[in-house]
């Protein structure tokens, strides 16, 4: 299913309308000079008016990736009602009001895509691409996949905002990505899951653009041949062959008292592709790893932390690791792993933080995959 929308260019903020001084002049004692605004020194972006345009190729490619994420979500959200009947949704516990919310979230994506397109100078209609989805067997399957799609869309966008040269565009995209986080919460509630399985909302995990592209590219089947390329790396795919189901027998609900489905010490079975597989629209992209060593570590990216565990029984492109424990700030604090965690296979265990996470990319052999913790 393909959905497109006319592109509306954001216009300039209207200038302040002036009036003839004689029309509003009053006679009286001049007011005292007001005190200066109370604010600290420092900060950026106060010396010139915002342009809301990409300044560098990094800006353009980051926002362009974000545009493809929004278009995927637009198609995916409106695809659900085409795949399943109203009675199918109702049997899954999602009545007419919930179905309206799903369609409304699709309309939100039109606004997000239009905003991003305008900031990269897109002067034509939004790209018309076709998308491939997993073989959903139920509304539950569809909702679970939308939870994953919104998860990596949110994480990938959070990851690049602080690195954009054009911080005025970052401010605008930040406003949009807050909505994406709410959409993901809705999909979790529709699965009957605990809606916010993180210590604080500020600890929503961020990932790099190439990690996001690795997860997104397989969904895009066809696009116009003259569409600009996405210039990020697609890493080889990683599969968690015993990824736990997040099935909650209670059905949709506002919240649940079950916050985790797995626990430290669980054996996690992994299988990964070699480099060289085609991906993305028209199969015009090729997966690639730039790691120089062997598969040695599993990297778990969750909240503020990247945690490494050794790989065991590595044979060809398979092996297993053990789900780690620990707390965000050490023992006695919230679990370092929760929600949908990003899992990768690497050849080394470099120390990275959310802001310099890209330093791990030269060590990635495969992934990320989304691993279900809670």
Describe this structure in words.
Strand 9 (312-315) and strand 10 form a beta hairpin. The protein folds into 2 domains: 57-222, Ferritin; 238-372, no CATH class. With 374 residues, it is α+β, with helices and mostly antiparallel strands. It has helices spanning 21-24, 57-83, 86-91, 96-119, 139-161, 167-190, 209-216; strands at residues 130-131, 220-222, 238-240, 267-272, 278-279, 285-286, 297-302, 305-310, 312-315, 318-322, 340-346, 364-372. The radius of gyration is 23 Å and the shape is globular. The chain contains 7 helices and 12 strands. The chain starts with 20 loop residues before the first helix and ends with a strand. Helices cover 31% and strands 15% of the residues. The strands form 4 sheets. A 4-stranded antiparallel sheet has the order 3-4-10-9, with no helix packed on it.
Summarize this structure as a short list of keywords or feature phrases.
single chain; 374 residues; alpha+beta; Ferritin; 2 domains; four-stranded antiparallel β-sheet; 12 strands; globular; disordered N terminus
